[in-house]
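lol forgot to send this yesterday, sorry. struct tokens for the thing we talked abt
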């Protein structure tokens, strides 16, 4: 006997709820409950990238910083409340993390077609993938079914997100703590092929490091003082700052990595061989980057963490 429409809807809701509780992710999670999701996100990101290519860089950074703190749960999008301090004001994010309004705008479009159905965490994951593809980067299958956190974790953000001043050993340890190996780390660092950095994050690199191209350092010193205060922003990849490609690794081989932590990937250590390969083999980089993004995107909140489908990404329901 065929199920009545009301019974079918109940069954779909029960299946979705079970998947969310168990932590199961699936690329078809919203195929029945929000079939227009991907089309809506793709359209919104296409507009955003046309207006400003840096929007893609903003979102990939938000996604990375979100996943590294209690899993990919949208916690970075929350404003402070009396109960918790926002991750937006953690040291790795304060005055540097951007794109929150863009995520809110995309979420609003999704809410208009599928109210209270798609999590902010999933909106961020999908938007990130679309942004990378729009700048010429690889595509990957985005697993869906995340729930949104009901709290932010500023203290964890201060401790667990890698710093631009970290050395290779520290970077490997931070990624390993999240279940990501050194290859994942090196591939994910390729996201720095787009985006910019503030002077204070690279001032020690251009004024103190020795493994740096002299002309590159001299040029940057003209607009970024050793104090790091009041200086200019600079592209993380000066070759093709608005295209997602493997030029970031070519810059590392030429000792023109902007951040100390980036140049540590090519500094006589364990990742030199892989960096050289990525610098000449764009397909290998794209393949590994896509695989690492899927792996990072599967980081789930700690067991027992409460979740919901937030209607507004900056506050709990």
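and heres what i got for the seq, position by position
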């Amino acid at each position: 006997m065929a199920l009545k429409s009301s019974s079918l809807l109940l069954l779909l809701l029960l299946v979705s709820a079970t998947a969310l509780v168990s932590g199961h992710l699936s690329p078809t999670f919203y195929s029945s409950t929000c079939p227009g999701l991907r089309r809506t996100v793709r359209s919104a990101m296409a507009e955003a990238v046309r207006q400003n290519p840096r929007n893609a860089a903003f979102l990939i950074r938000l996604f990375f910083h979100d996943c590294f703190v209690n899993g990919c749960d949208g916690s970075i999008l929350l404003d402070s409340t009396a109960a918790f301090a926002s991750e937006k004001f953690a040291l790795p994010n304060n005055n540097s993390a951007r794109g929150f309004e863009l995520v809110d705008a995309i979420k609003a479009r999704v809410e208009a077609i599928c109210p209270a159905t798609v999590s902010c965490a999933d909106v961020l994951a999908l938007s990130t993938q679309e942004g990378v593809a729009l700048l010429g980067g690889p595509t990957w299958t985005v697993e869906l079914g995340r729930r949104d956190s009901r709290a932010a974790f500023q203290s964890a953000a201060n401790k667990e997100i890698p710093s631009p001043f970290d050395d290779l050993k520290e970077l490997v340890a931070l990624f390993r703590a999240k279940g990501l190996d050194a290859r994942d780390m090196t591939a994910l660092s390729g996201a720095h092929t787009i985006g910019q950095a503030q002077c204070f994050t690279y001032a020690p690199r251009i004024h103190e490091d020795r493994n740096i191209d002299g002309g590159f350092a001299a040029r940057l010193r003209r607009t970024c003082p050793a104090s790091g205060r009041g200086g200019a922003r600079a592209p993380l990849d000066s070759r093709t700052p608005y295209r997602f490609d493997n030029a970031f690794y070519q810059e590392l081989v030429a000792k023109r990595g902007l951040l100390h932590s980036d140049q540590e990937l090519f500094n006589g250590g364990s990742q030199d061989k892989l960096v050289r390969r990525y610098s000449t083999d764009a397909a290998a980089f794209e393949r590994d980057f896509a695989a690492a993004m899927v792996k990072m995107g599967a980081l789930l909140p700690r067991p027992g963490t409460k979740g919901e489908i937030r209607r507004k990404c900056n506050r709990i329901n």
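The two ends are 39 Å apart (CA to CA). anyway ping me if u want another try
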